[in-house]
């Protein structure tokens, strides 16, 4: 079971002090939060993608690559990578490069995001958002698994004899989660490929996402990747922790009540009705155990802890409490309740072992440039000579 | 369009009572808005019983749910009491929707309630539309505001709209309009038009997985895997099969 944090990199005025972080401060601060998560033994740091103020992560691979260089153990991920408005070719390249520099400490979560104007900003049609997500992932999946890809679809220019570089580290693509809050087609795609499925979970009533998670589990089994109990499920969560629960509520209340998303909502309702926990470490532990009870054994629990205008010192303290007082207990408790045969989420190491056993992983070496910057059907010294690429006809 | 097997409901039990649900946005007590709805509901029940069909009436008063409705608009999800109201409405065979007119339009409370309903909650359900006002000058509000609202929801508003200004309560013509509207609703119910439409065309409407509609998809067996998008989800091209080409 993996535990970690996910952040959308939002900026808002601190309702207590009135202070608004600059973009420069927020970027530095989010790096500190990720470093602290690594130091206290959390397993995952996931970063969102936004292309408008007041958010900073427009370029998640750049920021995550920097964090990779400053951390030792933590897996870097995304929450989510926009698979609709980004070119899947560029996603394949950027995340493969990030996977290399992170030495395999990378997976990613693809999704549609929730910001309508992103589509026109990047020249896409939101009415085709689901189809864009599905088609783009189909291509991304192939680009990471086939050295040479011929491809034609509805949404991007065709590819002929295209090789996405660098090839994934050890020729093992990063593990992919599909994030969705309502779309069975996305859950179906996750199940079809044997990928993970992540339910944001927060901002909605407890167990609201259960039908979709159950759907994914059943389809994962249908496609022969394992039993439905073995499907790879991730859930979001949101917590504000203090040793005494009343301190947590008192400290957090202004941040909740003044945050744009929650204005007019009642903190007490949110605590009762949604996965948000504001309270002692034990209260967070108890709440997360209800997730396991409700959704079945799952593989990844991410918490939103650093947003909502919290000053960085407070966010760092949240990460610390999570890593030292909540997660160690949850690891033990959830393991003891876990059914036998339920796998952990795949990591680069397990995927390498699954593919190669004890053998040496493939590390492709390119053939020399033919002079035309086309690599031909055999871009690498060990490329399968039987593969034929279709190149554009030059008359 | 072929019905999806999982969404073909069993034929109605002829002995099961027909469930009518009144939605009233009247806030005073007694409320003319509620009274108008009750009279339409009672007339429909009488007509159904006269033809041998037992019927029940449930009431959803929006006044006590006002804060819940406002909270749901802000937070994006309903509280428990509002969720219970959704479920009662989803289970209704026919609806009597009744609102006061305050400022040249339907009550904001009624519209807010409509705003938090699933788009497919009332598909092909017979609905009697009703409004009350202090002056006959508001008489067209039902047809100009309620009717388009229920058209958006793909419901089946009956041809006769009910409107009662103060003076109408002393006029027997109101009773005959109530009888006409109730008759129309009962004939739609007895012909089983709503159920037939839903049986035959449910997949043609837009739905949300896990929604509140009684036919909403909740399980694998509810889902149609033969769509273009489902083919695309499994690596296939959306255009693999020519013909039927629509965007989910």
From TrEMBL, chain A:
Keywords, in A-Z order: Monooxygenase, Oxidoreductase
Q: What domain of life does the native source organism fall in?
A: Bacteria
Looking at the record, the residues that make up the Luciferase-like domain are 1-295
List all membrane-crossing ranges. Answer: none
Classification via Pfam families: Bac_luciferase
- Tell me which InterPro entries the record gives: Bact_Lucif_Oxidored, LLM_FMN-dep_put, Luciferase-like_dom
Keyword Transferase attributed: no
Q: Is Oxidoreductase among this UniProt entry's keywords? A: yes
Q: Where is this region: Disordered?
A: 336-395
Which protein is depicted? LLM class flavin-dependent oxidoreductase
Provenance organism: Streptomyces niphimycinicus
UniProtKB/TrEMBL annotation, chain B:
Q: Which domain of life is it from?
A: Bacteria
State a single Pfam family of this protein. Answer: FMN_red
Keywords from UniProt, A to Z, are: Flavoprotein, FMN, Oxidoreductase
> May I ask which residue range the UniProt record assigns to the signal sequence?
none
Q: Tell me the ranges covered by the NADPH-dependent FMN reductase-like domain, including all copies.
A: 20-169
**What is this protein's name?**
NAD(P)H-dependent oxidoreductase
Organism, per UniProt? Streptomyces niphimycinicus
